[in-house]
Amino acid sequence: MDSVPLSTMLNINSETGDIVSLQSFNYEELNTFQFKVQATDSGVPPLRSNVTVNVLILDENDNNPTILTPYSEHGSVNSESIPYSAEAGYFVAKIRAVDADSGYNALLLYHLSEPKGNNLFRIGTSSGEIRTKRRMSDNDLKTHPLVVLVSDNGEPSLSATVSIDVVVVESTADIQTQFRHVPTKEESFSDLNLYLLIAIVSVSVIFLLSLISLIAVKCHRTDGSFSRYSAPMITTHPDGSWSYSKSTQQYDMCFSSDTVKSDVVVFPGPFPPVDGELISINGGDTFTRTQTLPNKDKDKRNKPGFVAFA
Question: How far from chain centre, in Å, is Cα 301?
């Protein structure tokens, strides 16, 4: 409505106030619109008044029913199969249709037409389901041409038709064969994708776990190597003292400035090993390290954290 000028749709008589449409309206495209009308008198000064006019478009039955897929109404013949052993009420097919009109005009009814004397099928007038009315007999035809008429409730009523050939087969296996092959192929393809996905995920998880385990073992060995092979360290201080440290243990030793040579024995507490560490320090800030103590000092090693000077 906004894109179409009102003057192309309506005309108002300036003297009588009659409003006349200049074109036809389609309910499916435009079902309501409004406009304003102003009335002015001839007095001095002129007086005026405004009014809003709402226009409602009524639906007209101008659309035929449309048959929905998988059936076609354009002269083609559709085919359905039923077994010879089908009982009364056996489902044959369902016809679906729509109408673009609204309200009562869009209400559809289904009617079935079949050869005279057949009287084998029936259709739901509102559902469009085709079912058998009785069991088959040897006198019945092998192919039953049916015509379904779909009509609306408009005035005048509009309709559409679809043709279906119902073929009688000996057993249900003949019916299921044409539907069984395609779904099985799709399921096999789906299962193959599932197995492939599971295999890829499993290999990825195993590889990731192996990589994490390898990194953890390597880091553990590296930490153990550092802790196992940490060497002792002796640090000199300006006041003539020495500090001896190994791993997390540290010992401070003080010497006089005139010390020429000293033997220092360091035992890590609380339980000293059988073989201690003998470190000899001279005035030139050099030292020698011996792992085994003389027998005369073994009685002194039994004290935790003992430091001996010679």
Answer: 74
162 pairs with which residues across the strands? 148
Region for residue 2 given its phi and psi (left: phi exceeds 0; alpha: psi -120 to 50; beta: otherwise): alpha
Contacts of 113 (CB under 8 A, 6+ apart): 146, 147, 148, 149
In the numeric block, the tokens 């559902």 are attached to 127
Beta partners for residue 50, in sequence order = 38
Instruction: Decide the pairing of beta strands 277-282 and 287-290.
Output: antiparallel
Q: Is the pLDDT of residue 5 over 60?
A: yes
Question: How far apart are alpha carbons 253 and 281 in whole angstroms?
Answer: 11
Q: Which residue has the higher pLDDT, 81 or 251?
A: 81
* 156 cis-preceded (ω within 30 degrees of 0): yes
pTM: 0.48
Nearest CA among 156, 136, 132, 135 for reference residue 146 = 132
Closest residue by Cα to residue 67 from 23, 97, 37, 35: 97
pLDDT class for 137, splitting at 50, 70, 90?
Answer: confident
Tens digit of each residue's pLDDT (9 = 90 or more) over 259-297: 444 445 444 544 444 444 445 555 554 445 544 444 544
Residue 4 buriedness (CB in 10 A; 0-12 / 13-18 / 19+): exposed
What DSSP string describes 104-168? GGG-EEEEEE--TTT--EEE-TTT-EEEESS---TTS-SEEEEEEEEEESSSS--EEEEEEEEEE
Using CA atoms, how far residue 186 sits from 175, 177, 189, in Å, is 19, 15, 5
**269 sits in which H/E element:** none
Report which residue type is found at 205. Answer: V
Tokens of 187: 């399921």
C-beta of residue 110 within 8 angstroms of C-beta of residue 150? yes
For 274: left if phi > 0, alpha if psi spans -120 to 50, otherwise beta; the answer is alpha
CA distance 181 to 271: 83
Q: What are the C-alpha distances in Å from 150 to residues 70, 73, 290? A: 16, 10, 113
The confidence score (pLDDT) of residue 157 equals: 92
